[in-house]
Amino acid sequence: MTNRPRRLRTSEVVRGMVRETRVSKDSLVYPFFVVEGNGIKEEIETMPGQYRYSIDKLSELFDSLKESGVFKVLIFGVPEHKDEIGSSAWDEDGIVQRAVRYLKKDYPEFYIITDVCMCEYTSHGHCGILCGEYVDNDKTLEVLAKTALSHVKAGADMVAPSDMMDGRIAAIRQVLDENGYVNTPIMSYSVKYASAFYGPFRDAAGSAPSFGDRKSYQMDFHNSREAMIEAELDVMEGADILMVKPGMAYLDILVKLKERFDKPVALYSVSGEYSMIKAAAQAGYIDEMKVVGESAVCMFRAGADILITYYAMEIAELITEGSIG
Ligand code: PBG
């Protein structure tokens, strides 16, 4: 036998040498939820091990992040006040804006990305301004741009619009540029599917729609070519990073995006993916850390340049101990 692929699998040393995928803590982003109030660190029922923090409790989280070597975060705000148009989303003293100001002051070594969307702020839970029961695209652009600007004014390093309105990257880019923020990048949730994998997140953020679903703006999971149209529009409108979401079941889309576009591509392994692994682990059906490490490596192997995951600290730990890497 001339070719014996097993030769390069005989020891950890040689396997480590020929590894095709290298993972780094630099590519990890940790998403978290910040709530109004004081002294709050409450566990999210559907995401054991994940919490909603009030600003005064954020230091607990950020000290752990620092310790694990994860220095990039994605913030979601859970406001007290909701109304038809989601006006607290762009309030200078809104929850995200205050959290960003606090973090920039006390944790300047962190890179702060903010999620820009209306669903946590609207009384109806949809991602934009309603016209009857339809989310009005062009009216929503204006409030998204205002919201993004208010995040950046508070000190956000990057904004990540997740609403799936048409033309939102152009609208946000224009407003940021007009206000002198020409170097603030936009990470677009370019290819975001209407997915049941977001279930636990909606519990965490209190953002489930009060009627209907998000299928008139988020993508239909039967489609793959349409994802290329979404990404192409975002590239033309000035997105700096493209994102695919959810992660695990959507790696084919990630592969296609990487082949076609030269922008960095982020993958969001969403709440439902976290909760499924957690639940199976708690039931004793799987080895949590092994599954977490393997899925993270596979997502990078598929081509992710950036991985957004609630397991970021655990993955960093696996890298530190050499279990993956
Ligand atoms: C806001 C938003 C959602 C997620 C990220 N940004 C929820 C949704 O679209 O319903 C989901 C993240 C997750 O499930 O972890 N639009």
- State the helix count: 11
CATH class: Alpha Beta
Gross morphology is globular
- Work out the strand percent: 15-25%
Total beta strands: 12
Structural class: alpha/beta
The percentage helix is 25-40%
What does this structure look like?
With 325 residues, this protein is of the alpha/beta class. It contains 11 helices and 12 strands. The strands form 2 sheets. Strands 1, 2, 3, 4, 5, 8, 9, 10, 11 and 12 form a 10-stranded mixed sheet that branches. A two-stranded antiparallel ribbon has the order 6-7. α4 packs across α5. Ligand PBG binds next to α6.
Blueprint (SSEs and pairs):
Blueprint: H1 12-18, E1 28-35, E2 41-43, E3 51-54, H2 58-68, E4 72-78, H3 95-106, E5 111-116, E6 130-131, E7 134-135, H4 137-154, E8 158-161, H5 168-178, E9 187-192, H6 199-205, H7 225-237, E10 241-245, H8 251-260, E11 265-269, H9 271-282, H10 288-301, E12 306-309, H11 312-321
Parallel strand pairs: 1-3, 1-4, 1-12, 4-5, 5-8, 9-10, 10-11, 11-12
Antiparallel strand pairs: 2-3, 6-7
Helix pairs in contact: 3-4, 4-5
This protein binds ligand PBG.
Descriptive tags:
single chain; 325 residues; alpha/beta; TIM Barrel; ten-stranded mixed beta sheet; two-stranded antiparallel sheet; 38% helix; 17% strand; globular; binds ligand PBG
